[in-house]
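Report of the visiting student (M.T.), summer placement. My assignment was to run the structure pipeline on a short list of targets and document each run. The first record concerns Heme ABC exporter ATP-binding protein CcmA.
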Amino acid sequence: MKLIADKLAVDRGGRRVFAGLSFQLEAGRALVITGANGVGKSTLLRTLAGLVPVSEGKLALEGGQPDRSLAEHAHYFGHESAVKRALSVLENLEFWRSFMVPARPEGFAGEVLQPLDILDRLGIAHTANLPAAYLSAGQTRRLALARLFVTPRPIWLMDEPTSALDKASEAQLLGFMNAHLAAGGQIVTATHSELALHPADALHLAAPEQGDEVEDEGDEA
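After the run finished, the structure tokens were exported:
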């Protein structure tokens, strides 16, 4: 499976956020996006997730399930945890599992876990029956992460994924991310931190000036 962006441009609020952006991402690889605040890292992730429209250029996914869109192959793990505070921790996972359609294209062998199993792995099984409103910031972040495992999808779109996590949880998350790559998944992540992802390519975004194009550097991260 290959994710392709060809001369992509996105406008938001009457402003061109980026233009001429091109990259290709093969199965089993990560794309690590860096750049100053405001250059469009989060906007790019939201565009890939189908939340922001493309103004120019093309997005394509080769080798995916033909009856599913790019967004339906992806999990979006953004700044907001998308947790329903009035529901219990377990009810949140059951809701996501019933709402999100799984995607399993050929070559993707990502692990599927039951809600209680992933909560146990993340160290928050003791909160299963508590309202999500009672969780700490770190526990809420781990609950948001848990949804990636109850409904398999090959593309993880992750915006500052280690935010609000302690060192132990951050190391565990990196283990999950590398396991996802080893299973044939793909990760596109925006970060200000060093992420030990292998194999990975780097994409540095800079604010476009006077028609300058932003291109994939294609370096190893």
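The chain has one domain: 27-51+68-203. DSSP finds five helices and nine strands in the chain. I thank the supervising group for their guidance throughout the placement.
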